[in-house]
Amino acid sequence: MSYIEAQRDGIPMKRDRHGKNIYYPPCHICGGPVYSWVYKPGNRYTCRACKEKDSTKKHIKALVCMRNMCYY
Ligand SMILES: [Zn+2]
Predict the structure, then answer these.
(1) Are 45 and 34 in contact (CB under 8 A)?
(2) Of the four, 15, 44, 45, 54, which is 20 to 30 A from 69 by CA?
(3) Does pTM top 0.85 for this prediction?
(4) Tell me: the pLDDT tens digits for 51-61?
């Protein structure tokens, strides 16, 4: 039950207009709230901004690799 665990861990939550719980666990990179339907203790949550930063990093890495003639 993510509801009890979220309460125990002090995770901010909200109930949407359909009566579904929404959790805001902190992002493991920036600490900002991450919108989530489920809360699992021990899960690493990443906010959208950090996810985008991460995929940009991967993209840059791939480009560098292409210049060094290594293709995936
Ligand atoms: Zn973040």
Answers:
(1) yes
(2) 54
(3) no
(4) 998 888 777 66
